[in-house]
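hey so i finaly got around to running the thing on EGF-like domain-containing protein from Gossypium gossypioides. pasting the sequence first so u can double check i didnt mess up the copy paste, my clipboard has been acting weird all day
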Amino acid sequence: MNEIMTGSVDTKSVVSKMTLALLEDSGWYQANYSMADHLDWGHNQGTDFLTSPCNLWKGAYHCNTTNLSGCTHNREAEGYCPIVSYNRDLPQWTRYFPQANKGGQSSLADYCTFFVAYSDGSCTDGNSARAPDRMLGEVRGSNSRCMASSLVRTGFVRGSMTQGNGCYQHRCVNYSLEVAVDGIWKVCAKAGGPVQFPGFNGELICPAYHELCSAGPVPVSGQCSNSCNFNGDCVSGKCRCFPGFHGHDCSKRYCPSNCNGHGTCLSNGVCGCENGYTGIDCSTAVCDEQCSLHGGVCDNGVCEFRCSDYAGYTCQNSSTLLSSLSVCKNELERELSGQHCAPSEASTLQQLEEVVIMPNYHRLFPSVAQKLFTNLFGSSYCESAAKRLACW
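ok and heres what it spat out for the 3d tokens, dont ask me to read them lol
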């Protein structure tokens, strides 16, 4: 990941010594290895990082819910967890969720899910500053890094949509990690943990010293066991586990809220959601895929039709549309009291039926299938079902 010769990049690409060696071996170049960039993807993650499936990776290298923001693996940016529901099942070896069509945004990254930087989330770029930064005590620049935080300036209220992390200055001095808020520097515990600042409510969670200041961990008393397996924050020598994890070192998984009654807690501690629900705790209702195809918007399981979102469309009774339709006429006659989001102009509606609905119908019920089903069963049921799906 992030190497310029790979197909998938989440933040910025780097030219590593490996690529320089490849170019030199071609016989056309002489490489200056001192100019190579640092390739930090997977740094200090051990051999399991190479051999384990990516849903078992630790910390920012794996995320499983879109409800939480976080820091990228190198703490250089604030990030989000992109999880996509595809209209097809993913290859068997890239399935990390109970839903076979759910995974990360990039096929070149094997559909793995990890924190990806927001377009304006860079902590190291001073030009990425946001309006709320001052209220939250954040500063962006070359020596700033992403850290978990609930800080907010006294007299202000941290909004419910505000991320649980931010960009703060850091420095490594005399084998200690120091962080700054509003120009005030404080020393962090070697194992990491919360620090508070005058003029601010909340706290900033320092990373462990070795994350930002040295190549390897520094043994200290009170350091959390196994660094909480990167599934939680180390606070005063104790692990604060992320949702879905528990145990003194956050090594065990559990099903949050017992899957909210909408799924089964599997033996590995992951919720297997029943049809119609999704999320780490099966709390989010989903709509039938036809909702979006029909111009609807899914709001926690409820398909809402907002014709105002489509220029030239209005909400019309089925009975008013009959005269303008041919293929979909029979389907509308079954529900004359219903309403549909449709073009206001009859001519536009007729064109829509010709260029959109008919191709959909033939895709759902191709001519080969029509002949086969007619010979075996008669085609009336399948024909009607295909028209119903194509029309509405």
